Prior knowledge:
The chain is an alpha+beta fold.
Amino acid sequence: MADKTTTSFMRSLCMGHIEQEVLFPFPTLSADQKETLHEIAGALEDLLGPRAEDFRQWDADGEMPSEFIEELKAFGLFGLIIPEAHGGLGLGNMAYSRTLQEVGRYDASVAVTIGAHSSIGMRGLLLLGTEDQKNRYMPRLASGELIAAFCLTEAGAGSDAAAIKTTAVRNDDGWLLNGSKLWITNGGFAGFFTVFARTDPEEGHGKMTAFIVTRDMAGVSIGPHEDKMGLRASSTTTVLFDNVQVPADNVLGDVGKGFKVAMQILNSGRTGLGGGSVGGMKRLIELATRQANERKTFGQPISSYGLIKEKVGRMVVDCYTSEAVVTMVGGLIDGGFEEYAVEAAISKVYATECLSRTADEALQIAGGNGYMREYPYERVVRDSRINRIFEGTNEILRLFIALTAMNDVGSQLQELASSMKGVLNDPIKGFGVLSDYARKHAGLATGRGEAGKLANLDESIRPQAAMFEKQTRNLAQATDRILRKHGKNIIGKQFATKRLADIMIDLFVMACTLSRVQSSIEAAGVEKASREIEILQVFARDVRVRIKRNLRRIDNNDDELLKALAVDAFEAERFRWDTI
Ligand SMILES: Cc1cc2nc3c(=O)[nH]c(=O)nc-3n(C[C@H](O)[C@H](O)[C@H](O)COP(=O)(O)OP(=O)(O)OC[C@H]3O[C@@H](n4cnc5c(N)ncnc54)[C@H](O)[C@@H]3O)c2cc1C
């Protein structure tokens, strides 16, 4: 049985091990949780279903009326993940993500308002708060009396979060907080802020600490509502701290460990954004299929044309595979796995990019109507664009995904190097490590190692499972190869890192999809699961083609040419050529 404190499916996969028991069987909700979710979905349909016109208007106005936020509070939407003992619904990660999926079907601004509260605003309190802190704030957060916000970003510190300049200086009464935070979701009405500040300001990139700050503390103020491209009805503001006296017992987690706290919050909250993205895709598939059936050109509904079928078929594949990966990550978290950061990052990158594609293609299917504000498509395109930027940009997450894996493989290579020394000092001990390493790699190279196989899958999906096994061996060898080629310089080799990340993303999504389809086959039989098997077939073929291309380009690529073109453009700060 996998050790839940140390096992990460993807980190093992990069070393050629398929930890099958981590992802199989596909996670499911208990009958009780399913019933609760059905009730929530039904009630949300009553609450949000009739509001389509309101959502359109609030997007145009750039604001959500406060009466509607009161309705969200009354509904209990701010207490989703708060334990029942503190007045919340106590949903686990999977059920929470599924709820955001339901909200995401109706309106992304509503989903992000609720999501920023639960996924990031108050999640630090849930994960790391003391009993006293929980008793003080949880009930008011559950009722929505306090809405939560997450305050990390500053004008000079977005992706480079460690560069924040907000400071907290210790004094007799606790900490004195000074600084300003940028683009804070829910800033306009939040009463509870998880704030990150430097607590040893003298040093350049100072150590960070997380604090609980409330709106009633003197010196807290907010800036104006931002005028945004999308999510226009959600609240985004600056939040300013001017000599705010924060009590000592409002430190969240350990002093000096704020960066880790921020990452823990973001990792754990990723299924919220993933769930919202899946909900958005499901809604778009409803809209696009209805539109394609109704719209006729050349005497035929456009749904009869191959080019439209291709788009809708791909939407279905994107949605199914995204739901598989987002559900899986929720299941890992609920199942008590502690090392899920890479998998969670993959789910965020994958689901947000699938939603972007789906939104773009749904708009295309709607043609000119898709471009008109009267229809929902252009709003979904605008709303979904931010998902690839916030809660970790997809570029930064790709670097994180691949560098984490390479760090593991690198440590193993270092072990090998030190065991070589061991051969000189202690031949027997050194030989043990060496032969272990050699065996593993021989297994990878020949594909004979049991650790590199998926067992007990239905015959109908064996070809896709075999492809997964083969590409796992390729992944492990590619990781090894990239690392040997670049060594420590890998940090600066972003083209290579991205390639590895893309292979990892494809393989994790593939593994989650295999698990989902296998569960459907076990539950309903091959015939009833035939459509799902077809989804797997399409996805697997795409994955194989993409991975092959990525592998080929490790050694044979245009990286240096592209870099040179970019450097030239940076120098000129313009396009150099013209035809007149
Ligand atoms: C609507 C909205 C809501 C938000 N809500 C919140 C919130 O509630 N709380 C909060 O704290 N923040 C929030 N943010 C901020 C958001 O998290 C940041 O915008 C995001 O982290 C990116 O930071 P940045 O905008 O400074 O971009 P930058 O960090 O300047 O990045 C610019 C570009 O460079 C790329 N890049 C940066 N560094 C590297 C690198 N090393 N290698 C390769 N590429 C790199 C990035 O991927 C990006 O494409 C919100 C932002 C928006 C727009």
